[in-house]
Amino acid sequence: MMxxxxxxxxxxxxxxxxxxTLLFIGGIIYSFFYPLPYSTEIVQRVPVAVVDQxxxxxxxxxxxFAMAHPSLRVIAVTPDLPVAQDLLWRDEVMGVLILPDGxxxxxxxxxxxxxxxxxxxxxxxxxxVALNGLAEVVGTVxxxxxxxxxxxxxxxxxxxxxxxxxxxxxxxxxxNVKEGYGAYVVPGVATLIVQQTLLIGMTMLFxxxxxxxxxxxxxxxxxxxYIGMLLAFACVAFLNCCYFFGFVFWFQDYPRGGNFGGMLLxxxxxxxxxxxxxxxxxxxxxxxxxxxxxxxxTSMPVLFLAGLTWPVSSMPVVLQWLRWLLPSTAGIQGFVAxxxxxxxxxxIRHEVAGLLAxxxxxxxxxxxxxxxxxxxxxxxxxx
Amino acid sequence: xxxxxxxxxxxxxxxxxxxxxxxxxFGMLSWIPVVLCGMLWLxxxxxxxxxxxxxxxxNxxxxxxxxxxxWLDASPxxxxxxKVASSDAALHxxxxxxAFGYLLIPNDFEQKLLGGRQATVQWLYNAQFSSHAGALLRxxxxxxxxxxAGIEMTARAKKGxxxxxxxxxxxxxxxxxxxxxxxxxSYEAFLTLALMPAMLQIFIVVxxxxxxxRELRDxxxxxxxxxxxxxxxxxxxxxxxxxxxxxxxxxxxxxxFFSLARGWAVAGSLPALLLSMLLLVxxxxxxxxxxxxxxxxxxxxxxxxAFITAPAFAFAGQAFPLMAMPAPARAWxxxxxxxxxxxxxxxxWLAGAPWRYGVQEMLILAGFAIGCGAVGVFLLARRANxxxxxxxx
Lengths: 383, 393
Fold this sequence. Notes:
The complex is a heterodimer of chains A (383) and B (393).
Chain A: H1 2-15, H2 17-33, E1 46-52, H3 57-68, E2 72-78, H4 81-89, E3 95-99, H5 103-108, E4 113-120, H6 124-153, H7 157-164, E5 167-174, H8 181-212, E6 214-215, H9 223-251, H10 260-282, H11 290-305, H12 317-322, H13 327-340, H14 349-370, E7 378-379
Parallel strand pairs in A: 1-2, 1-3, 6-7
Antiparallel strand pairs in A: 3-4
Helix pairs in contact in A: 1-9, 2-8, 2-9, 3-6, 6-7, 8-9, 8-10, 8-11, 8-13, 9-10, 10-13, 10-14, 13-14
Chain B: H1 3-20, H2 23-29, H3 31-44, E1 52-58, H4 63-74, E2 78-83, H5 87-96, E3 101-105, H6 109-114, E4 119-126, H7 130-158, H8 163-170, E5 173-180, H9 187-218, H10 221-227, H11 232-261, H12 270-295, H13 298-309, H14 312-315, H15 327-334, H16 337-350, H17 359-383
Parallel strand pairs in B: 1-2, 1-3
Antiparallel strand pairs in B: 3-4
Helix pairs in contact in B: 1-10, 1-11, 3-9, 7-8, 9-11, 9-12, 9-13, 9-16, 11-12, 12-13, 12-16, 12-17, 16-17
């Protein structure tokens, strides 16, 4: 009874145009569409303005350095603050360097001079690039002045430089070494896409079966039938994951290939959990489109709950627990750890345990609901 | 009173009865968006990530290295979860995701510094968790720079310089860094506020597509049209009214919640922000009408809605900037009303811009509403009232 149910489910998936599109085509379309905005990966040449109220040799030197900085593009130099404000509101610049009147005089007199750097805090990535770039510009000019002064009192420039900043801070990115934005977001979203397309497809099929009062497996609701259907849906999740982890990560050149054996094991567990979760969900709705409506709207909350883009420890405790009810939580974290970071199975033990628990719970509940499906409905393969 | 005046009332009444009789459809206009938006806000409600775990490899174990470790732990964004002996142990914590970076202090750290030479600390971080790493990098660098400056000042003082003199010498031009409109670079301001409209557009399109698409699927278009006295404009209007009211109310609720309860007051033009919100809802009502009119299939239109609305936030330029996107992605972004609305919201709500800075975007949104809506109604009038258009699953 298991294999007939398995085959009947596959036949149902392949003969329903809507389900077929979602389960097998949707992932492929998204795999090209979703990474598209991030294909350049990093931000360069952020437009900034310089407000030069000093109009001295020093402020002109600072402006020149800003123009030469690789991550900045100076699009306006003006003495007027309102002009800069106008440019900010028009989204034409994302940062402003303000050089106040008296800057050079203060420096020459040995007093501390102040330059102001402002970025648009509502666009975090641009803000960071603008702030860092402008701060580097001021830092470089400032260091030049300081070195000249120190050079007068110390024997060598090397020594002068060492006196200037005793601790050298060397930041080294690991795993996503190019620090690409797509490489950061897309691997997590890949798992979400596999989950959401599968759940939409499954709820669509179940809804249709309920509406038409015909199931791929008719007659007595046996465990064999449940398992056969579960395995068929798990295959879909498995295949889609293979496509993303195998082809898409390679095609987009994301960090990959960490722990292949571990990945395979988690993949089996994840696919089964997704299938059991989807069957439970599918048996909740009675119309073809119902699951789709809800699933479209839940995608974003589900992604953020996974804790990839926002630290789990900063979420309210109740969400820290509730998020484990979604297979995507363990899936996203586990696969990123295995595929991008090369984690061992021990290092993802929480994810494995979470998925196991979820699988057991979903199978238990699903089996209970499964037996309540009306036995008199017709087998749609025979109808 | 003639029959034409009674038309919209009965179309509305019909729609209302239908909504009341459908638990989930009614939910999609009421409690479901509130619950999901509320959950999203909860995720980011702390605004700034605190106490992210890191580990330290202290090969020096000196007064200075211990001081550095203590300062790190005292920094609000960082928690030193453990001191470990080797890079292997640290990497294990990183892969386990119980730490997101580690600081490597060399064994000659104090000796070099006291001898007036430079010492290097290495900060190795998990760049796969980019926002965690970004928050940590800022804090770890600040701590290290502070310690460095302290050592430099002490060295100067030893040479007999006064504190003020030393301070001025040590950094001739100081820089004050300012994140405008969002001083703490809070994720609540930058992300949650932008995520709410992104959720809103999903709900609008799904609701409108569902309400019109159902008539097509069930082949009840003649009854629907008859209830509107044969006027397509009224028929579609009756379909749009309840989603319009529900989501304008939701938009207002979100405005009130964040501006009053959460303290993100509207710094710019409030009337312009309100008008922008209305235009956003209208633009998506128009887009959804066009979507169902073009496909004449509830399932296809919902698939279209999934494709257009679910990834829209990724294209909207809030998280990853528009200017860094390749041309096709930018073009797609420009074709989404959400992109234009979020620019308006950013300007009016937090950046404090006067109304005139958003006229262009508002015209674009109005264009979406009128253009898509008109084409949608036209297509429905031409094609929807024919048996060939019904029952597509």
